[in-house]
Design goal:
Elements lengths: L1 H6 L1 H31 L7 H4 L3 H27 L30 H5 L1 H7 L2 H31 L7 H4 L3 H27 L21
Helix pairs in contact: 4-7, 4-9
Length: 218
């Protein structure tokens, strides 16, 4: 058990942080949603009912959507684009280990590498594919939740409900998306540029402390 915790410490830590913050989101989101209900003359609801509201679905997936988009674009763009001096960039002047063709004879190679053919062709791009798929699923869930939340509010006010075709061009949905996307792109820009000049000893996201500023790569 101790060995498993050591071997998976990073993922376990972030999974626990995710669970803790999700619980916090549910707690405070329920409180906020119930304030809206009371203000509109409706009765407050419990946790189980809140979990299927548009308010919860929209607020959850609009954040997931931006995270997966950021990671997918970062994985793709770092194939072709470089930043001199950044630990997040490939070296400008030499071939990198990640660029070499996979060898089926390499010890411990994953089974798709040994299988070859179209399976390997997909596997070579599988990280990008899964990240974009997660973005697409989150984007659709965000749209569904945002539309549902909008219609729940309109229903409370006795106003006509929005259709899917109408809401796809609604400023609310795109405002929610763009406000999250821009923050994710800013965070990537920050780590790419700041890692040129600043260090963190012990972190693989940083260059060695004594590395020259213009040395590129980790």
């Amino acid at each position: 058990m101790k060995k498993k915790l050591i071997n998976n410490g990073l993922s376990i830590c972030f999974l626990l942080l995710f669970i803790i913050t999700l619980i916090g989101q549910i707690f405070f989101g329920l409180h906020e949603h119930n304030k809206e209900l009371i203000e509109n003359g409706a009765a407050p609801i419990g946790v189980s009912a809140y979990m299927v509201t548009g308010h919860f679905i929209e607020s959850t997936f609009e954040n997931w959507e931006s995270e997966f988009l950021q990671m997918a674009l970062f994985v793709v763009l770092t194939i072709f684009l470089m930043q001199r001096g950044s630990s997040e960039s490939k070296d400008l002047y030499k071939d990198e280990e990640v660029d070499r063709e996979p060898s089926p004879t390499k010890r411990g190679a994953p089974w798709p590498v040994k299988k070859g053919g179209w399976i390997l062709a997909i596997y070579k791009h599988s990280l990008t594919i899964i990240l974009f798929l997660l973005f697409l699923v989150s984007f659709l869930a965000h749209f569904y939740g945002s539309l549902k939340d909008e219609n729940e509010l309109l229903k409370l006010k006795g106003l006509p409900l929005e259709s899917v075709s109408d809401f796809i061009g609604d400023s609310r949905f795109w405002f929610e998306s763009f406000q999250n996307w821009q923050s994710e792109f800013l965070s990537v820009f920050a780590i790419v540029i700041l890692s040129v000049y600043f260090r963190q000893i012990g972190s693989p996201q940083s260059k060695p402390v004594d590395a020259p500023n213009m040395e590129t790569g980790d």
